[in-house]
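Human: We require from you a protein record containing the residue sequence and its fold in token form, and nothing else.

Assistant:
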Amino acid sequence: MPLRFGIHIPTCIEGMMYPIPFARPQDILPLALLAEQLGFDSVWGNDHMTTQRYVQREFETPPNYYEPLVTFAYVAGRTTRINICTCILVLPMRHMVVTAKQVATLDQLSGGRVILGVGTGAYREEYEALFPDARGAHRGTIVEEGMKALRLLFSERRVTFKGRYVRMDEVECFPKPVQSPLPIYAGGNHPEVRRRAGELGDGWLPAVLSPEEIKKGVEDIRRAAERAGRDPAKIDIAPQFVVSVARTHEEALKRFHASQLYKHLQSLRNATLREQTGGYAERNLIGSPEEICERVRLYQAAGVQTFAGMTFVANSVPELRDSVELFASEVLRHFRT
């Protein structure tokens, strides 16, 4: 099966991955159209509701966070081929029936092009800002119950679910998605996420891992899938990476260290990336096109099938477009049959 490649488009990226201001509403669709035109397989968008404290400290102006499902409805109406994917949708911040209704509607309107990446979210502070009375809640359990409930809502006539956090009584949720099953990917690096991917998911959506860490994760997922009586070969391995591509390694590394994306990764060291050791260059796609091609092959050998939500180093939308075009012309073409 050929490798698949997807890019991150502006949903909730200002102040975190890019400066403030970065993308205007009128910049979003052209980036998705460019990705489709250049031959990328998917566009991905993240999910935030309020500003993180470290972003508030750095910027006087609050970032614009565009809600991903609404954004993708806009993108779906003007694209024809490219998949539209959440990377990730933060389930603890959302009501499962409303989420199921929105996602199924989006899958219908797009002709079956949705991939639903879900997870806890990297910033617990954001969850507690929305739900100040739920400070003791276990977000991983909410995600697990949410994945199970969404499966039922996407497939069953009438759904009753009695979980610790997720509850509903005789809900009929129609229309169903075009896709059966609609792909649900488990997002995150934690061992419990790998278990959920194996037992419940159609894909694993980690972030910023080395080929060796990916390989270990694939083994964990395979064991979990086999215990659950599932075929592990049907679970997509779809990590997210930062991309800094330039004509030389030195230029690419310099751009990365000077970027807002570098600061964003630093902010995740006590959350999503807390179990990592070593440098970022070993866990991302940083370098010349030739070096990045070699990195892609290493990840492919480790089990990666989809390069999901690649986030390109840039300080402006024109810089982002230039990097995406360079990647397409000098990297992507080598992995197309």
